[in-house]
Amino acid sequence: MSRSSDEPFFDEAGAARYDDDPMPMVDGSPIEAAVEVLASLADGGEALEFGIGTGRVAIPLASRGVAVHGIDSSEPMLRRLRAKPGGGDVHAVRGDFASTRVDSSFLLVFLVFNTIENVTSQAAQAAVFRNAAAHLRSGGTFVVEVTVPDLRRLPPGERFVVFDVGEEHWGIDEYDVASQGLISHHLSTVDGTLLRSSGSFRYVWPSELDLMAELAGLRLRSRWGGWGREPFTNESRMHVSIWEKP
Known about the structure:
Layout: E1 2-5, H1 12-18, H2 31-42, E2 46-50, H3 58-62, E3 67-72, H4 75-83, E4 91-94, E5 106-111, H5 122-135, E6 136-147, E7 160-165, E8 169-176, E9 181-190, E10 193-202, H6 206-215, E11 219-224, E12 238-244
Parallel strand pairs: 1-10, 2-3, 2-5, 3-4, 5-6
Antiparallel strand pairs: 6-12, 7-8, 8-9, 9-10, 11-12
């Protein structure tokens, strides 16, 4: 038996499975590594997460004494967050994190696990940076965790890259290089049912993000190849970038 969906990650079924992802951070780091970095940047103040989802980063960050707020467009994901132990300590609202405003200012705004790519136009991605800057206090930081576009694996003339093959999951990325579009196709077996889903994204380059940050009045402080603060190199498959509001 099979079932398909074009909204695989954020509907009721997707929210129920979201925390089962074996790689909760892009580089496979445990959540604790990301929380350690984010807690140090929050420095005991308030933090705002764009795309807070089920709270798998926000809740452990709140347990470190950080007052965490969040914005997410998916009500099923937010319900999962609120139902978790510690979920009541996180102040989350439903909205579009490119434009929704929270009535506070923050030392830290962050957006992890490739969520910037869920914003599928350049103009809207730039709006995310402006919204982050508008929420930041002077000296505050905006953190983005995202993959480096993997176009070196795409042969000339081809659109599809198989990125995962296993007993329970197949993953295939479909690229539209002209528009920086990416459709991620997934085939998963869950309780004997074959689930087929596809999600639309827009991949983005580090230099492009830096320009968006500059236009929003932010400047690059650090860029690492992972949450362990590894150097960012030509071989890095992802990056953690930190921009500061002067």
